[in-house]
Design goal:
Layout (H helix, E strand, L loop, with lengths): L7 H13 L2 H8 L3 H15 L4 E4 L2 E4 L1 H29 L2 E8 L1 H6 L1 H11 L2 E8 L2 H9 L5 E4 L8 E9 L1 E6 L20 E4 L6 H9 L6 E5 L2 H11 L2 E5 H4 L7 E5 L6 E8 L6 H25 L9
Parallel strand pairs: 3-4, 3-5, 8-9, 8-10
Antiparallel strand pairs: 1-2, 5-12, 6-12, 7-10, 7-11
Family: Belongs to the LysR transcriptional regulatory family.
GO molecular function: DNA-binding transcription factor activity; sequence-specific DNA binding
GO biological process, one term: positive regulation of gene expression
Length: 315
């Protein structure tokens, strides 16, 4: 004999009769007639093979079996309400998940304030941030695995929408009392007389790579580090100079440092990269708007610290 199963209408019928304890009230809540409720309830008891209610003084009293089913029905209804809330949230863009990947300087300076502003508007959206190198980020965006990537697009990509965010320039960090701090612009050859720290990732920039090679900087470079932030800290601690990017200069405490642009190295574009085949959402658009506003403010700081033209930086 085939096993009897409950359908959604029967579950709702049981729920209303147990909750209301009268057929009239249950019928009103279900927008059907009382005779229809009576007929359907009898059919449900016959289908399950158990008695669900007994009458006492004009009211329906649920049996132990009905109470067990009712408790599970409440859990089912709660799950259904949660599912409907999720569907409404996804439809209106007030609930969901936003996945972002960016390189460290972006996560330190731009993302904290942008995420705070975003979550004040969309408190139920889960934000996930991954810090990756540029190659990994471009792969994640191109393969449609994240909603947004923020980095320098150094190669062509397919199925990716690129939106300019800001520009970062290559500058020389030095103590604010360094004689070169008064310059408007520096040449690589000007850096020959003091210990120089470079950043490995920046040395791959073709223009900087060519300048370093032409200036025979082998004896000049005393250290190579993994980040511009570390290079700046070394200048603060030990003196010397470092080749860094202006985004980092605008992202850290620059007390006692000056930054002067290096000539013949064009600005690097930092862009928002969105996978074009990944379904978009209104909150992704909203986050892009927020971070673009943050980038405009950061750009002003970068113009001050990354293009000081001989003026000294203050913290």
């Amino acid at each position: 004999m085939a096993r009897q199963t409950l359908n959604y209408h029967q579950v709702q019928l049981l729920y209303e009769v147990v909750r209301c304890r009268t057929l009239t009230a249950a019928a009103q809540n279900m927008h059907i007639s009382q005779p229809a409720v009576t007929k359907q309830l009898k059919a449900l008891e016959e289908s399950l093979g158990v008695r669900l209610f007994k009458r006492e003084k004009g009211r329906l009293l649920p049996t132990a079996e009905a109470i067990l089913l009712f408790e599970q029905t409440e859990r089912t209804n709660a799950s259904l309400r949660a599912l409907n809330e999720l569907a409404d949230g996804l439809r209106t863009g007030t609930l969901g998940r936003l996945s972002i990947c960016a390189y460290p300087a972006i996560t330190e300076r731009l993302l904290p304030e942008a995420i705070a502003a975003f979550q004040a508007r969309f408190p139920k959206v889960f934000v996930e941030v991954a810090i990756e190198n540029a190659e990994k980020m471009l792969d994640l965006v191109e393969s449609q695995q994240v909603d947004l990537g923020i980095c320098t697009p150094f190669r062509e990509m397919r199925n990716v929408i690129e939106q300019h965010l800001l520009d970062s320039t290559i500058v020389c960090a030095m103590p604010s009392d360094d004689p070169l701090a008064k310059r408007r612009m520096l040449r690589i050859a000007d850096l020959h007389d003091v210990a120089l720290t470079t950043v490995g990732a920046l040395e791959s920039i073709p223009e900087l790579q060519a300048l370093l090679a032409s200036a025979d900087t082998g004896a000049m470079i005393h250290a190579r580090v993994s980040s511009s932030a570390l290079a700046c800290r070394m200048v603060q601690s030990t003196g010397g100079r470092a080749i860094v990017e202006s985004l980092t200069a605008a992202s850290i405490d620059v007390s006692g440092l000056a930054f002067v642009p290096i000539e013949l190295i064009p600005p690097r574009t930092i862009a928002m990269l969105r996978p074009s085949l990944r379904p978009g959402s209104s909150f992704t658009d909203a986050f892009c708007t927020i971070i673009a506003e943050q980038a405009r403010s950061l750009g002003a700081v970068m113009a001050q610290r990354g293009g000081l033209h001989g003026r000294r930086a203050s913290a």
